[in-house]
Amino acid sequence: MKWHYWLIFPLIFFVKGANAPIDKNIDLNQLSGNIQLTLKHGIWKLWEEKPVYQDITLDLVCDRGNCQPEVWGYAPKFNQDVDNQGTLETNNLEPPPIINLPFKFNQSLDAWRLKIKMQIQFNPWQNDSQEAIYEIELVPQKGKILGSYQGTFNQRFLQGAVTGNMSPHWPIPISNHRPITPLEHPRLIFRKDELPKLKETAKTATGKAILAQLQKTLKQPIYYDGYVPNGGYHAVGNCFLALINDDQKAAETGWKLTETSLKNPGRRILEQSPIVAGVALAYDLCYPMWNQPQITQVTKWLEGQTSRLIKGDSPRNGWNSQPASNWNARARGAAGLGALAILDEPITKRQKIKGYIKLSERHIKRYLSSAIGDRGFGIEGDHYTTEPFVLSMFPFLQAYRNVMGQDLVTGSPAQWILPHYVMRMIEDNGELKVATYGRHRYYGGSSLFSLGIPTVSDEFLPGIMELFNRYLGSKGNRTFGINSPEQAPFIFSKYNNTIVTQNPVKTFNKILVDEQKGFYNFRNEWQDKDDFVANIYLKKQVIGGTWSFPDVGSFRIWGLGGHWANSGESEAKWDEENVVVIPKSRPWKVSNLSFFASRPNGSGIVSLTTDAIVNKESNPPLGIQGLRSFAVDYSGASGVPGLFVVVDKFMGSVEAEEFKEKVWVMHTEGNVTIEGKSFIIKANNGATMKGTFVAPSQVKISVEKTNKGSKILARGGNEFFIIMTVQKGSYPEIKVIGTGLNSEIKIGNQQIYFSQNRIFLFEF
Fold it and tell me: InterPro entries from the xrefs (predicted)?
């Protein structure tokens, strides 16, 4: 007889903390996925002998209220280099740990109650920690979680509010994933059981072409110093050839390159990261062909370097611990590769290495969530966004999927990196180029294809593969996007020539909008070097500790083979962007969207309002705010394939001495001549852009030569209204009625005017 279960159930209920009246049903379907609980002032430490309280966020993974026992905590203002580990002790939504209950467990509770124990570290370089205990009471409401907590940490009683967010599972478990077997190698780029098929691929025309390109890259210079030491990457290429061709000599070459890399550490973590990434990939490929002493030596080295990259370094050594920094992405991608490579090695401790993998995952997730926008625009600009992906991030994402059976890409900004650049790139002299933003003024180029194709969704893959085949594959330059030896095994193992390709125009929207970062891109087609791409960067967000250029409202225009509005020099100077500069003032920091409209043909209108610049020392305080409206017209109504309109106006103390002078700036690569109120840019192929200032009425245009071409400057007023047409052949006639921002302009069948703080196009 089992009557005693009825007797002990109320006791279990009481111990679980559910002693309040039961008057509310909790929808357990809400409590599935990644759940973040932020405890107000849930952690503290002494600062200048005074207690300073900070928030801590606890991360749980749950399925209908049933949560995994592992809990992770992060308190960036306490120490952004540390992730704190803990356990879920009790959860009143989970059935009691008693088997064969003669009744169905009822979750009709008034609140969700948790007890969590955390081990809080004060810095990543010491293993000492202190226990924190939190008892949390929560109520899910309309997609949010509200509640309170009480607990203890560092000999103090703590209590406060709790706010929570729920999001889909990330990473996503991969169905039918086969766990790796002990000592299984290769495992990072591809699995061991894929090797026979890859050896057959090597006999095909495509396989031979990829291996030929690999051989070309292996003839490139090898560097064991500089910003990107590549000895490890050359070892990867040789180890891949060793596997594919059963070539012991290539494996020996891979060992020599690896051994030399181990003996030449990078100057800082920034430089050490590509060394670790290359060595980890080479180790995985050459593992079946190296002897045990070699394997043991590299295993120990990778374990030590992984620990170092996870912990970070002192800012005195250049280390940037900001989650959105490219340093974080470089280092933690490499650390993840190192840990995944040596997981389950006999001389390592499994839980320790799994901890490194988890920490790498958490750092990478924070990087993706903070640095990369919802459609792939990176807050640090194109170079510092794409470089970490090429050096370690793309390899880590693929290796994590293979080894852990988890997908970190789907549903994250990572799935947009390659599609984002496909939206922006145009063929130019055999290369796929992009009008860039940020420092160094370049991007990862075709390497984004060789490494990034596995991250592309099925929706975009046919269009991306069409572009890949046309420019980089058998129909193109046959480089397959391989610019460095380590990239060859990635595209070799993932290239699929059975995909039915389509022109990207059939799979992509011609408009790309990254709402989070404020990037708007307008494209007319994917045909050839005459395609048009125009974009404008609102810069909706600034994160301290990351690279940031004064590019609020800066725009780029390419089309008909010309780079009409281009980036300036790679310097964080206001006049190196295509903006209105106020010489005696600081640049704008951010802006917000005030209007947006688009059309299926790729045309669009964007208006932004900047933050205010205020001189608080003046009496009374003086300030100014800017508004820019940017219009792109590919309709052909104007009689030309590309029409672009820019309006700038200012509000506030526009005549104050520090704000009075205003200079409209645009950088270009073409040859520039000035004709009255117009400038004419001529590209090498004969195409032209003609820009005409409707305002100011007494505009003064000048041109300065630069290292990258020319800089067009316009002065003469507080408002700017400019019409730019791009064409081959004669310029269209521009008719202007009225003056200043009240003007109405007619070009062909297109009419343009400015009202309500936005540009209007009659044919739109």
Answer: Chondroitin_lyas (IPR008929)
**Mean pLDDT in residue range 621-634:** 97
pLDDT at 215 over 50: yes
Question: Helix or strand or coil: residue 698?
Answer: coil
Q: What is the pLDDT of residues 488-544, one digit of tens each?
A: 999 999 999 889 999 999 999 999 999 999 999 999 999 999 999 999 999 999 999
Mean pLDDT over 68-83 rounds to 94
Angle, vertex CA 312, rays to CA 307 and CA 315, nearest 5: 155
Query: Which of these, 176, 194, 177, lies nearest to 185 by C-alpha position?
Result: 194
**Sequence-ordered list of residues with C-beta below 8 angstroms from that of 132, at least 6 positions apart, any chain:** 42, 43, 86, 117, 118, 119, 120, 151, 152, 153, 154
CA distance 538 to 606: 9
3-state secondary structure of 162: strand
* Superfamily of domain 185-506, CATH level 4: Chondroitin AC/alginate lyase (1.50.10.100)
What share of the chain has pLDDT > 90, as a percent?
A: 89
Nearest 10 degrees: CA dihedral of 71, 74, 80, 85? -20
Q: What is the pLDDT of residues 470-487, one digit of tens each?
A: 999 999 999 999 999 999
Tell me the two tokens of residue 359.
Answer: 């920490």
Tokens of 647: 């309006």
3-state secondary structure of 141: strand
Q: How far apart are CA 299 and CA 348, in angstroms?
A: 8
Kindly give the interhelix angle for 248-262 and 292-311, rounded to the nearest 10 degrees: 40
For 88, the token pair is: 């879920």
Distance (Å, rounded) from C-alpha 671 to C-alpha 630?
24
Looking at residue 18, what is its pLDDT?
37
Specify the DSSP element, H or E, that contains 617: none
Binning pLDDT at 50, 70 and 90, where does residue 108 land? low
Residues 6+ apart with CB under 8 A from 89: 115, 116, 117
Spatial CA neighbour of 322 closest among 138, 543, 33, 558: 543
| Cβ–Cβ under 8 Å, residues 608 and 553 | yes
Give the angle 635-636-640 at the CA atoms, nearest 5°: 140
Q: Give CA torsion, residues 522, 525, 528, 533, to 10 deg.
A: -10
573-615 per-position pLDDT tens digit? 999 999 999 999 999 999 999 999 999 999 999 999 999 999 8
pLDDT band at 26, cuts 50/70/90? confident
**What residues are paired with 184 via a beta bridge?**
none
d(CA 35, CA 32): 8
Q: Verify cis geometry, omega within 30 degrees of 0, for the bond prior to 196.
A: no
Q: Assign domain 513-761 one CATH number from 3.30.413.10, 3.30.70.580, 2.70.98.70, 3.30.70.100.
A: 2.70.98.70
Residue 71: Cβ within 10 Å count: 22
DSSP-assigned letter for residue 588: P
Q: How far is CA 110 from the centre of its chain?
A: 41
Q: What is the pLDDT of residues 424-453, one digit of tens each?
A: 999 998 899 999 999 999 999 999 999 999
- Report pLDDT for 96: 63
First to last CA, the chain: 79
